[in-house]
Amino acid sequence: MKKKPLILVTNDDGITAPGIRALISVMKEIGEVVVVAPDSPQSATGHAITINSTLFINKIDIDPEIETEYSCSGTPVDCVKFAVNEILKRKPDLCVSGVNHGSNSSINVIYSGTMSAAVEAGIEGIPAIGFSLLDYNWNADFEPIKASIKKITLEVLENGLPEGVILNVNFPKLKEKDIKGIKVCRQAKAMWQERFDKRQTPHGRDYYWLTGEFVNLDNGEDTDEWALEHGYISVVPVQFDLTAHHAMQTLNSWKLNND
Amino acid sequence: MKKKPLILVTNDDGITAPGIRALISVMKEIGEVVVVAPDSPQSATGHAITINSTLFINKIDIDPEIETEYSCSGTPVDCVKFAVNEILKRKPDLCVSGVNHGSNSSINVIYSGTMSAAVEAGIEGIPAIGFSLLDYNWNADFEPIKASIKKITLEVLENGLPEGVILNVNFPKLKEKDIKGIKVCRQAKAMWQERFDKRQTPHGRDYYWLTGEFVNLDNGEDTDEWALEHGYISVVPVQFDLTAHHAMQTLNSWKLNND
Q1: Domain range holding A149?
Q2: Does A132 show up as a binding residue in the annotation?
Q3: Residue B3's pLDDT is what?
């Protein structure tokens, strides 16, 4: 790249999370950084947007090296929409989201605010990457993955991404020397087996907490789950054309238009 | 079907919305109906789930013909998870979501709480359909589409759905006699061009409302947008494997593992 690329950074853990600060530190080495991120944690908000409530946006100053940094009362997808339409003077060259505190591999991609922000950027025609580390801890160590974040980001800036494709990158929780490499993978078939933890308010009313256990149903060795379990960084190309093209022939054999 | 099928009904407009009441009235003709739906409007919540807040679930009695009807303080996806794990004694034969007041065609599928509920059922291995009518009005007329809802539902119960496939069904706002038929379609390439309506609180603080204009970028005659504009009911098979399989070769040509 001749000119410094313009990079939009967001996340779903909130603008003060160590994960986004680590991501910002890497992006500052690569380009001009603009940050628009939620003012509070927004994990598992999926592709939610705020249409029945108001949005508050505040210019803030966490990092003196960054001129344009805003917190937003909305969801990660709101942040991307607001950045692109109200803050940025031109379309950014890249949008990166994360680093998420916790996995967004396999089916988690669909619940993830981090990935939904990246997907939203993709819908708006911006090359986009979501980064996640398999460590839910607030004090997770992001140092071991910084070099790989930089490498993947530079490859995207150099090669571009196929139209309608966003990268979902997950890092195993390992020391840098123990990471075996980077693998391009497909999304594993997996799901959450839910359990609802039933409790009572002090006033005797029942309420529930959603909890669950992750179940990988996919024995393939080409999946993100396999790669992560075996010490690799997983890179899954993700699309927002949800059409199951392979199912169209079957549906067209149905008697939908007979009386 | 020999035995009456067990049908889970949900939506994102809330349990009292005319759309879900219309859907329930059709499903009562087909099977045993269980309703678990949000206690308030949850439009555009996407695939959000409630993990940082508590869930309240209340047994309610809107329709005396239905034994099992619950309202839930969470999102449409929470409703499906709670129904499957806590309320239903066996896996339902079908989950239907809607009828949404407003379109969930093309890219709207990704923001839609209605479709996310159906997709969640799909993830849990339940055949699922989301229904939407292109009329945002609370008093929209659902009578003209009831016969087609029944036809599509019976076809799904008879044929099953391919694994990992959910149906996204949208109805044009037309009289029954003016509906031309049912078309199996792909998701049109479209997006929202956002505009943020800036206002001030009575105390002088800026805030915003997210608004926007829908832009169809796709001239194909095989899309859901084309079908709806031309008086057809659109049926798009939707999948939750988001892997862009066609992009994997390209990514594998990158220098991701070189030093």
Answers
A1: 6-188+221-252
A2: no
A3: 82
